[in-house]
Please model this.
Amino acid sequence: MTKKLFTVAAMQTELEAVQTKADIHKNLDLFTSFIDNVVPYMSMVTGAPCRLVAFPEFFIQGNDLSWTVADWLERAITIPGEETEKLGKKARQHNIYISGAAYVVEPEWPDRVFNEAFVIDPEGKIVLIYHKLATAKDVEVATAPFDMYDAYVKKYGDGLDDFFPVAETEIGRMGVMICYDGAFPEIGRGLAMNGAEIIIRPTTWVEPITSEPQNIWAVQNQFHAFSNACYVVAPNGGIITSRIMPKGVLTGNSMVVDYRGRILAQTKTTNESVVGAEINIHNLRAVRRDCGFIAMLPHIQSELFSKIYEKPVWPKNCYLDKPGTVADNIQTRQKVIQQRKDMFVSPES
Model:
């Protein structure tokens, strides 16, 4: 039976760029100690038991935009591995779900890294692994499934579950998207079409688009929540200490948004913090079923909307044989712009 009322905690952690695998465990030791105090604290201040603790992108490894694929391979983890085992112990101790995201190397492809999110259940088991679909290609060296589509499909499959996995849990159906994924409405919709009621969005979203007057961060989170009638739990990174960028370039603003697009709770700091809010799955399911104007999922004209994508844009399998670099990504983007004159008109025209 689904637990209908509970609290989620979005952790806003300082992101310290690690130099060795030992540094990863220093970060992890600190953050697991946070869990010991955050879970009872959030349960107390909200009045509902805290059942989900969500960490931001890069929370155990940090990030340095100068790192190459080779640099990341030295810092990548495996899933499952020591790190998820340590988090699993905390999940069992506190009867909670824990989510996060990290750069991961998989045995089949030892020359590349993936940006992967995970959800661990209260028994310490990994119940969901998600591969970031929309890597931020102008700055990110992780391989996306579409970059090696044929090989990815051969291992994982070609269904909705293989790209938009959703975990059925006692607190609701959970899916994950990572950071730049949130810039694409299709990814939130793909999770919703696969049944997601709670979308977790681990992120390192940066200025100048995190705060006013743009605040695209909030706009995206609210849009995904409203258009898909789901909760969005969005932990963003706090201060970054890679020292190649100002510490405050990550502005926090971690938030929890409800199925009507209302921000239930939000941090107002760039520092390390946590924010929590109550989740009511009963109300969400009632709105999805009974309130047609607010819950748009039954009105999706899928056969009509599919026409939008009949003509390809970004090419699949462009890094099937070897991982791409940021320079490769920029070159591919320029080719796309040249090929799709129907979308891109020269400013001089």
About this structure: The first strand starts at residue 5 and ends at 12.
